[in-house]
Amino acid sequence: MKPASPFAPGPLALAGLIVLAALTRLLPHPPNFSPVEAIALFGGAYFASRAWAVVVPLVGMFVSDLVLGVVNGGTYFEYFTHASFWLVYACIALSTLLGFNLRGRVTGARVLGYSLAGSVLFFLVTNFGTWAGGTMYPHTAQGLMAAYVAGIPFFQWTVLGTLFYSAVLFGGFALLRRNVPALRAQTV
Question: Does pTM top 0.70 for this prediction?
């Protein structure tokens, strides 16, 4: 089956939900309580086109990063020059690949499991990057462990944010699909 045009109602609805979720990063929230992993899993689960599944969450995050840069000024724009920027975007792409495993098999338990896996992936990759690419921690096994221990308070918010946004995106889309026949295909 040929994937729908990106301008068909299904892909437009998915893209709209993803960009809207990404823009919630502009609202006050605890550190790391964000839709980052949820939008990636959601895109991977529902876009018929694998390319769109990867690109749309990345673009949604980039749009929200640009808006955050405008709102927060120069200090936020410096983020675009750091390795952590690329690691976050790599995690989004990797979590989208995880989301491919949800295609046609979306259940609450599976979304929960993949949300936890995406959160762990994000924690491991970004804290490793902080250790490897910075001077905050010595480049030893003890330094790496210190980086992971320092990330634990943020990890709880990553998990809670991913679970919250996964529930909103997957649950909201399930409700939408019940009422909009064009969205009833397993992938759109």
Answer: yes
